[in-house]
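hiii so um. not sure if this is the right channel but i have a protein structure encoded as tokens and i wanna go backwards to a sequence. like what aa goes where. can anyone help
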């Protein structure tokens, strides 16, 4: 299997879980603060910033500033380009030889070597380290020995990773995986310095990487200060002096700080401000397609949702949702009703399909009611939607979805909302499988491949498969697609697997999400990459 864990769990698009108190941490940067420093909204990561343990947006933003890997996704096109890798060679799409470029080092002056990658990957795969992104390494020979499904590991390292010399290592995969090199821009595959292993506790307090920024300080609940690393070896050197990430618990407060000059950048415009943002910001407002989809996932680990015939109820709930009205009234032009389980940003050649979900994603209240009644009704006569409500106007759309479902069924308030105060609390409930009704599943891709929208979320046992959907035919098609060396044929196989999702509805596609951001007059050259994350290193400060 290949359960990439996304990536990043989008706490909204780019989840802006930002700052608690009025101006989010004072005026030490941005809005007339420290020279050359960009101040930006942020939310506390769910976990410490280990590359193999970070699979949500807020932590991912930091990793993208302090690490560089074998490949990097072009901020404009999403293309996976060699970065630390001089070359990645294979003759069979199963055995790879990776050669590193010269001159790279970590910010503590330690050289980046082949061992830096091999040690990091073995750590990420080790079941005893409990890393969220472990499944990214599951394709490598020997993964089962270090990450058994049950019991203690039989080995400390994967036999499929072999260091040949300081600049070269080889990777043996269990099966052919033609697009495997394209996944290596994801942060889980970052190298790690020796200090990560020799003084792990100190590293977690102040992570050391090899990217254009270094971590200056971090105070949980308040913010993180990152500063430009002058000795950085890459071509994408930071053009500013650093970035101050400020924690907010309400992105409306972040937006107010932006308008009042106390913040430089908000990377998720709150829905309540969309009617004002064009007048407020003019050309300092960014709204563009992104590799993000929002869905409602069913807890199929709960027998009441997984018993035979419940696919009709799941389909009925989907057809009871008026996506067109909700996206227009709440999100204006920043969301588009979903038609499949991927993203239009992939393009048709990349696997996007406007027909994959079919009628199940079309608003049809009469058919919705009929399907649910034929299957015996909602479990216990009700359905409860859960999401964090500190970012992304989630309470607004959940209320709207429930209103739509209640109106369609005509049985009173059978659909209700379970608001969770913070993203971290919501993620903890979700990842411990404690939710008993449909829950929000925002997905921001790790890399621009259709595989990343399907396998991490729906393959049996994949680490972002929080609904615990399992279908042998779906798994078989995904495996076949991964082995396919022809890109078009592989994409077609993945699209074939989507038909199973359309039949079983383990999740309801809601809408595709644009990246949206606004910035102050103090900064320029502000852009979002295809994942809707600001390209911080290229922001100029006047």
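sure thing!! here u go:
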């Amino acid at each position: 299997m290949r359960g990439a864990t996304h990536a990043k769990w989008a706490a909204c698009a780019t989840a802006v879980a930002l700052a608690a108190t009025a101006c989010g941490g004072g005026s030490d940067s941005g809005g007339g603060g420290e020279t050359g420093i960009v101040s930006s909204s942020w939310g506390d990561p769910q976990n410490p910033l280990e590359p193999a343990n970070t699979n949500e947006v807020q932590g991912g933003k930091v990793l993208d500033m302090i690490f560089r890997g074998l490949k990097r996704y072009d901020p404009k096109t999403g293309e996976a380009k060699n970065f630390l890798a001089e070359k990645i060679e294979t003759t069979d799409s199963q055995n790879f030889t990776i050669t590193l470029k010269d001159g790279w080092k970590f910010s503590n002056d330690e050289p980046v070597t082949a061992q830096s990658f091999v040690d990091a990957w073995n750590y990420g795969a080790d079941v005893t380290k409990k890393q969220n992104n472990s499944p990214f390494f599951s394709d490598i020979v020997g993964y089962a020995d270090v990450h058994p499904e049950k019991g203690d590991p039989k080995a400390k390292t994967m036999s499929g990773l072999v260091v040949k010399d300081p600049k070269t290592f080889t990777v043996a995969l269990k099966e052919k995986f033609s697009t495997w090199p394209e996944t290596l821009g994801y942060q889980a595959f970052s190298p790690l310095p020796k200090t990560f292993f020799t003084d792990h506790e100190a590293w977690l307090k102040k992570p050391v990487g090899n990217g254009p920024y270094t971590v200056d300080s971090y105070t949980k609940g308040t913010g993180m200060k990152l500063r430009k690393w002058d000795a950085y070896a890459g071509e994408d050197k930071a053009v500013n002096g650093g970035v101050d990430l400020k924690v907010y618990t309400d992105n409306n407060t972040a937006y107010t700080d932006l308008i009042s000059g106390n913040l430089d950048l908000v990377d998720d415009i709150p829905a309540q401000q969309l009617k004002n943002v064009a007048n407020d910001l003019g050309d300092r407002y960014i709204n563009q397609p992104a590799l993000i989809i929002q869905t409602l996932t069913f807890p199929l680990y709960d027998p009441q949702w997984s018993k035979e015939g419940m696919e009709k109820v799941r389909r009925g709930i989907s057809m009871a949702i008026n996506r067109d009205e909700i996206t227009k009234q709440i999100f204006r032009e920043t969301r588009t009703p979903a038609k499949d389980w991927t993203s239009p940003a992939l393009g048709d050649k990349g696997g996007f399909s406007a027909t994959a979900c079919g009628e199940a994603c079309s608003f049809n209240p009469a058919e919705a009611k009929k399907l649910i009644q034929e299957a015996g009704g909602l479990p216990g006569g009700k359905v409860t939607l859960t999401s964090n409500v500190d970012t992304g106007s989630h309470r607004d759309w959940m209320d709207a979805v429930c209103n739509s479902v209640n109106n369609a069924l005509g049985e009173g308030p059978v659909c209700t909302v379970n608001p969770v105060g913070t993203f971290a609390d919501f993620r903890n409930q979700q990842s411990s499988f404690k939710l008993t009704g449909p829950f929000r599943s925002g997905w921001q891709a790790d890399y621009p491949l259709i595989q990343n929208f399907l396998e991490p979320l729906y393959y049996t046992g994949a680490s972002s498969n929080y609904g615990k959907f399992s279908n042998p035919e779906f798994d078989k098609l995904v495996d076949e697609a991964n082995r396919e060396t022809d890109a078009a044929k592989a994409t077609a196989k993945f699209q074939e697997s989507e038909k199973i999702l359309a039949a079983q509805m383990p999740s309801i596609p809601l809408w595709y999400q644009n990246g949206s951001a606004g910035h102050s007059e103090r900064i320029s050259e502000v852009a979002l990459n295809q994942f809707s994350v600001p390209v911080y290193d290229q922001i100029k400060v006047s």
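oh and The longest helix spans residues 487-504.
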